[in-house]
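Record type: monomer structure entry
Structure origin: computed from sequence
Chain ID: A
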Amino acid sequence: MPFRDLPDSSVIARAPGKINLVLRVGPRRADGFHDLLTCFQAVNIWESVALSPADEFSIALTGDVNLGEIPLDANNLAMKAVAAVAQATGRTDAVAIRIDKKVPVGGGMGGGSADAAATLIAINELWHAGLSQAELLDIAAELGSDVPFLLEGGTAIGRGRGEVLEPVKSLPLHWVIVPSMEHLATPGVYGRLDELRADVDVVLPPSLPEAFIDALYQGDAEALAPHLINDMAQAAIDLDPGLAETLELGLEASALAVMVSGSGPTCAMLARDQKHAADIQNFCSSAGRHAVVTSSPARGAHLVSS
């Protein structure tokens, strides 16, 4: 585990990052959110959270991603998760939070939401709160649209803001993830999408194609590739034009499909198998781009041994 010198009373949990294999975005709602039709898939890139009893609240970060823009106060999603469980249970204990980050920050892969999901599992254990998975999911939905899925993991169709989940089956898939040095704030990308579609009558599809669901069930990457779509991609590219070059690089590397992950700017490249993913990674690396091979689906937030 990434943590050293933790008190014996500490609890460690981890949660995965995610990609949106499909992300269809409806018109802006009166509450400022957008109705979504999406397919989440958890990937084997992990956020780890350690919680320890303490005299006062604190957050410390480690990891091999850019940590500079992550809040270390009550605005941090892990801290918000602790506060939400405290409110639900009446606890007032302070905790020290240590987070080891592997998911790209501000990259559209749900790193902050994964921190929240892992924290919910850890604080429930640390405080012996006895909250059920259903109760944790209700709290998760209040924390953020992606948090319920990262609590559950696997593969799921998401509706509403993304918090209404319908699990679907998927055999393993292989990916190359290419992060960006830029950060894109999700509200800003949604705002740009609204501007780009100001004169468009946006209609959210009622369901995902059966061929897409079948390809997931069979783990058929080549059949899945034509169905990958992200309505937010153009807005993300508009805000970070370098993304177009990254996507083109993936096509040059023979990826079956390339896409912006969520609100970006991380890009995901679909591979035929593990060897093909390694070939794509090598191609990207030779072009001077950091690239990570991973697979999906992954399990949701869970406790781990120290």
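Annotation 1: The mean pLDDT is 94.
Annotation 2: The longest strand covers residues 34-54.
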